[in-house]
Design a protein that fits this description.
Layout: E1 19-23, H1 27-39, E2 46-51, H2 68-75, H3 79-85, E3 89-91, E4 93-97, E5 105-109, H4 122-131, H5 143-150, E6 170-172, H6 175-188, E7 192-195, E8 198-203, E9 210-215, E10 220-222, E11 225-228, H7 235-240, E12 245-247, E13 256-262, E14 272-277, E15 280-286, E16 291-297, H8 304-313, E17 324-327, E18 331-333, E19 337-338, E20 341-343, E21 349-350, H9 358-371, H10 380-406, H11 414-421, H12 426-438, H13 451-460, H14 477-496, H15 501-508
Parallel strand pairs: 1-2, 1-11, 2-7, 4-14, 11-20
Antiparallel strand pairs: 3-6, 4-5, 8-9, 9-10, 12-18, 13-16, 13-17, 14-15, 15-16, 18-21, 19-20
The structure holds flavin-adenine dinucleotide.
Length: about 500
């Protein structure tokens, strides 16, 4: 255990930061506290976190994407211990129901389709198959989708050339329990938690840097680096520093969520479900002890009562609480890092949880902050690089989420008609044009979602390219069809051999 309870030496020889204050103790605050306390192992730095029990946290946020494994691994967290403590389950992808059209469903899987067939991604070969008139769904070639549909799960096995070696997965968990778990981790490593409500943020008159925070109880807190994790309020980054916000609601018009937990009436599914409704969509996230549900909708096309009614009509078990409304504006902060303040989590921006990306964006912000830790001089070039990287990341995720709305074929409501006809960002339009004309997809600048994800949504919602990659024709036709059927059979057999999700949890990580 390392303790950092010391008076920080601001005149440190190498001018490094020795005093950090994290403001807010939701998932963002405690993820930042855990990661920073872990990386400041040998060189002491005072890390404190202030949060208000009275204000509380946003209280939602339960589905993740596979990169979160890296965050937990970096901290040395044991996977099964973490699942037990967070009522967690495993996630192989997201099922999208009624998105492409009514009565249409597809799964966006983690990991790849099929198996390696040479130079090209597998989806090019599937496009060749479809072009030849075959009606097989690409999901028949995906180990994640086949396992998900069978309610099966296991982590990847070290079996060369087997689909079982390609399993990629994430988690569903109770985010407040995850924050609690990380709080314990961070406090063990010396992070000091301060309970109190911030009444005022004081800026330095000379340069506008954050100087100190005044708490309601009269205490004042100063630091060198402030990490604003105060959620939608953006207490430092916006309310005090007026950093500005890019509003994306013309592309993503949903602005409200109504959320309610419900009883589990069956074994938890190893995937998230997203069901489109007439002015938005509903999530269903199975945890060990309950299911998280929420209806994300656009208040311009639907009122609160209607939205709540639709939510309650579409949950499986009985509701465990009164539904709770959460308002938001989709977009991002004009600067994520402004002077000596870095905003992380909901304080930095918001994209609806359609692809479970918010916790990932927290993780990504933290790892970029660690990579670009400033000196006490706060070099502008460091700040600029951070903002450039985060801006690109938010915009890539934004485009991928807009895609789901734009390529829907639904014509049954004003909301869907708006979405189908709205102009989209140029970066997304270029991707759509390229795919439609040639079946090509590229992962730009290491963006979060790769070709497999883009293909899953485009194909799943009925977008068909005019051509596919010519090199997919290199294999002679009979041989090609034989190989494709063989891959399909291997994938199906592998999925059949996996334990059920419930069996896996019971054997390794059931919550007590
Ligand atoms: P919060 O949880 O709001 O925490 C803010 C903290 O700041 C609290 O501790 C509060 O006490 C403190 N604070 C605020 N003001 C003061 C003050 N004046 N004084 C002292 N303390 C103060 N993400 C996913 O990855 N997957 C999902 O499935 C998902 N679903 C979501 C569904 C919805 C409807 C919404 C709105 C978000 C969802 N998210 C999801 C996002 C996820 O919930 C957040 O990214 C995550 O919880 C982080 O929140 P936060 O820590 O930034 O803010």
């Amino acid at each position: 255990m390392h303790t950092h309870e010391f008076a920080p030496d601001h005149s440190s020889e190498d001018n490094s930061i020795t005093d950090i204050l994290i403001v807010g103790g939701g998932t963002a605050g405690w993820m930042a506290a855990a990661a920073l306390s872990h990386v400041y192992k040998s060189k002491p730095c005072r890390i404190r976190l202030v949060e208000s029990d009275h204000i509380g946290t946003v209280g939602v946020g339960e589905a993740t994407i596979p990169v979160i494994q890296k965050f937990n691994q970096m901290l040395g967290i044991d996977e099964h211990d973490f699942i037990k403590h967070t009522q967690g389950t495993f996630k192989l992808g997201i099922e999208f129901v009624n998105w492409g059209s009514l009565d249409n469903a597809y799964i966006h899987p983690f990991g790849s389709y099929g198996m390696s067939m040479g130079y090209l991604s597998f989806y090019h070969y599937w496009l060749r198959l479809a072009d030849a008139g075959h009606t097989q769904n690409p999901g028949e070639f995906s180990i994640a989708i086949q396992a998900a549909l069978r309610g099966r799960f296991m982590p990847p096995a070290n079996i060369p050339n087997s689909p079982l070696s390609q399993i990629a997965y994430a988690y569903h968990f109770d985010a407040s329990l995850y924050a609690k778990y990380l709080r314990h981790f961070a406090q063990e490593r010396g992070v000091v938690r301060i309970e109190g409500e911030i009444a005022q943020v004081l800026l330095r008159s000379t340069d506008g840097f954050v100087d100190k925070l005044l708490l309601k109880n009269g205490e004042s807190l100063s630091a060198q680096l402030f990490i604003d994790c105060t959620g939608f309020r953006g207490l430092l980054i916006e309310q005090a520093m007026n950093t500005g916000y890019d509003d994306w609601s013309h592309w993503l018009p949903c602005d409200t969520a109504v959320a309610v937990p419900s009883h589990n009436i069956s074994e938890p599914r190893p995937y998230t479900r997203s069901t489109a409704h007439s002015a938005g969509w509903q999530w269903s996230i199975p945890l060990q002890h309950r299911t998280g549900n929420g209806h994300v909708f656009c208040s311009k096309y639907m009122d609160d009562e209607q939205a709540k009614k639709i939510l309650l009509e579409n949950i499986d078990g009985d509701a465990l609480a009164e539904p709770r409304f959460i308002r938001f504006k989709t977009g991002m902060r004009r600067k994520f890092w402004n002077k000596n303040c870095v905003a992380i989590g909901l304080a930095s921006g918001f994209l609806e949880p359609l692809e479970s990306t918010s916790i990932h964006l927290i993780q990504s912000s933290i790892s970029k902050l660690i990579a670009l830790l400033p000196t006490a001089d706060f070099e502008q070039s460091t700040i600029d690089k951070y903002n450039e990287l985060l801006t690109a990341e938010f915009m890539f995720v934004r485009d991928f989420i807009i895609l789901h709305y734009k390529v829907s074929q639904r014509t049954d409501s004003d909301f869907w008609n708006y979405c189908r006809h709205m102009p989209v960002p140029e970066s997304l339009q270029k991707k759509l044009d390229l795919y439609e004309s040639s079946g090509r997809l590229f992962r730009d600048n290491n963006e979060l979602f790769d070709e497999v994800s883009w293909f899953a949504v485009m194909q799943g919602q009925g977008l068909r390219p005019r051509h596919y990659h010519p090199l997919a024709n290199q294999v002679e036709a009979n041989e090609f069809h034989r190989i494709m059927q063989e891959i399909k059979a291997v994938v199906q057999r592998a999925a059949d051999a996996m334990p059920t999700h419930a069996e896996y949890i019971a054997a390794h990580c059931a919550a007590s």
